[in-house]
Amino acid sequence: MNMKTLLILRVLALATIFALVCVLLTRGKAPSVCQHQPLGQEDTDDGHSLVFADLSPEEMTQVVRYLQENLGVQLVDASQAKPSDNCIASVDVQVPAKAEVLRFLDGGGARPPREALAVLYFGNQPDPNVTEYVVGPLPRPVYHRDVTVQKYGGKVPYHRRAVTGKEYVDINNLIQRELRKAPRFLAACCESDGTDLAIITTAPRGFKSGDRASWFVLFHNTAGTGYYLSPVGLEVLVDHRDLHVSRWRLRKVFYNGQYFASMGDLEDAFLANSLKVVWVEKPPPEAVLGSLRPHHPPGSPGPLQYEPHGPRYSVRDNRVTFQGWSIAFGMNPNTGPRLFDIRFRGERIVYELSLQEALALYGSNCPGGMSTRYFDGSFGIGRFSYELVRGLDCPYTATYVDRHYLAESETPRTNQNSLCIFEHDTGLPLRRHFSDSQSFYYGGLRKSTLVIRAVSTLINYDYVWDFMFHSNGAVEVRVHATGYISSSFLHGRGTNYGNKVGPHTLGTMHLHHMHYKVDLDVDGQLNSLETQDMEYELVKDPWTMQNTIERPYLRRERLEREDEAAFPLNTPMPRYLSFASSKPNKWGHPRSYRIQIVSFAGEHLPTSSSMERSISWGRYQLAVTRRKEEEPTSTSVYNQNDPWTPTVAFADFINNETITNEDLVAWISVGFLHVPHAEDIPNTVTVGNGVGFFLRPYNYFDEDPSAGSPDSVYLSSEQDTGACRANPLACLSPAAACAPRLPPFHYGGFLNL
């Protein structure tokens, strides 16, 4: 080998070594951090959406201070107030009248004064009552006016007030004193002295107006687990109507199918061997029914959704914008999520979209279960929407927003990170087509939606509230139920009311019904209600006149009055039902939005029931009424504790008024029947337990507005499909070659408990 050849080989060897070193040095190098790019869309709101904004903690504090200084009565902090005291029960924003808001938003009028709605319990008066005041203007109030009679036609009786946390504490103390009267029974049945038993309320609280007597169900309480699945068979009825706590009494005791006048009588029956006692062992934490502790150590992480260039939506104050959408969002402490001024491409589609109520109605052969009808708004759907767990309740990189409330306290509280906003790639095409004839091409658009989400925990159940906005102009509203089932002690013919899911546990059947208000403004405030459905007509074929064809045809109808537009639950309804404008689209059809309901509701309470009017909204899967400022909600928080004389009865809204070319509201009920089963242990899954509805454009546009989406993909046999400039999918590799900016995980959801 000559020197020249040797030199060439050495140079090649050095080059190879250098290349290998470069590979080794770059192999372990972390990818660059994703750089957020500013959004192309401009936010032109100028703070107009703040007319709908929830109160800030500072505003709540100012309202409390004003009431303390100007009502002329002594106010006790509600967290410590006795029923015989006066206290501030809650403070929330008073949303201005729609006409005032629209003059401001659309007509260049003055901004409406910002006001609060304060609810006070007056127990220290000759005539105890609940009073509601509008207080304003904020942030420095100088006036208040009593609106109770204006809203409800009279004073709200004191017994209709919600049960406060302090009242529950006093009831628990009474029950503990009573339990001490049966020590040997408790030791024999439950391995307990009573102090380690959990107590759950039922509602409503009696059988007639003025009653305030509640059944309480007792469970084994094992820390860190769902005690709702461990009933011990003992339930007690407490009468807590009197304003003086010392006069409250335990009126009845139930155990394993038998009723007793007192805990003392139960103890006597046990000592006399006349009581059938079922020994319910207190399980250790590792063996308790319904434990959510992981069975295995964590595995490899699952897929992660992230935005390489940052979010494509914008959140400013109480407003979110996304690809033509604009939504003002908020949270009512009682009724939960509420959205206002929903616009697409600058046009208002919905003025108000808000949850009204969530009903859970149970069946059982135990007194607590058989009498339970929870109206969750009275407990606080929004108030009990706690912090969301990043990466599980919502995507890890979602935007998390704090919510503030003032209830049963003079001090505002914050549920941090309790509402999340994110763009969601569903992994499903919104639309697509592959052409294999004439010409060869593919066109499609991925289904990417904006989601606004909150999750409420109401005793045992968790409700996931979703509001989704699609690029074709559709709005989707959905709720999923999860959390723990409620249970009764299994005795007698208990399986007539559910399934056995544990040694002594009956998973009790129940229904979930939710009610929404949808104030649609389709191409303006004035709309009509139109329906379309199909029928068959038998015709001769026109080319021979010798054969018959069953030809489907479209039956169109405009509904004229409210009675026609009230569709009973679980009965056939026109498949196409739309809010229609008087203005046509390019093709001559009325610009419309269609309401499409997805629900598997159980049976509504019979109208013969003495409490049915309090939930009469549940009679209808859909009811359309004329919008009235004096009919802002379909129910009231006061209905729970007096359903026999409801403060608000939705049935009264439907009085056959004309609904042609009027400002209309759609009231929508969705729900499902739940018969608990073994797979509801440890707790209920969201799969199959979701219901909701769509608001879909129907001839509102001249074509699908998503046709203009920059996310659209078109591939043809004549193009270079790998060219980034023509195909956004080809850009993903360089665009996603960065690491997402993941904030450190933190959870503070237990701080306000």
TrEMBL record:
Protein name as it appears in the record: Amine oxidase
Catalytic residues in the record: D376 (proton acceptor), Y461 (schiff-base intermediate with substrate)
Cofactor note: Contains 1 topaquinone per subunit.
Entry-linked PROSITE patterns: COPPER_AMINE_OXID_1
PTM notes: Topaquinone (TPQ) is generated by copper-dependent autoxidation of a specific tyrosyl residue.
Domain Copper amine oxidase N2-terminal, residue spans: 59-143
Documented EC number(s): 1.4.3.-
UniProt similarity note: Belongs to the copper/topaquinone oxidase family.
UniProt domain Copper amine oxidase N3-terminal: residue ranges: 161-257
Domain of life of the native organism: Eukaryota
Residue intervals of the Copper amine oxidase catalytic domain: 305-706
Naturally occurring in which organism (per UniProt): Thinocorus orbignyianus
InterPro entries linked to this entry: Cu_Am_ox_TPQ-bd, Cu_amine_oxidase, Cu_amine_oxidase_C, Cu_amine_oxidase_C_sf, Cu_amine_oxidase_N-reg, Cu_amine_oxidase_N2, Cu_amine_oxidase_N3
GO biological process: amine metabolic process
GO molecular function, one term: primary methylamine oxidase activity
Cross-referenced Pfam families: Cu_amine_oxid (PF01179), Cu_amine_oxidN2 (PF02727), Cu_amine_oxidN3 (PF02728)
Cofactor annotation: Ca(2+); Cu cation
2',4',5'-topaquinone: modified positions: Y461
Keywords: Calcium, Copper, Disulfide bond, Glycoprotein, Metal-binding, Oxidoreductase, TPQ
GO cellular component: plasma membrane
EC class: oxidoreductase
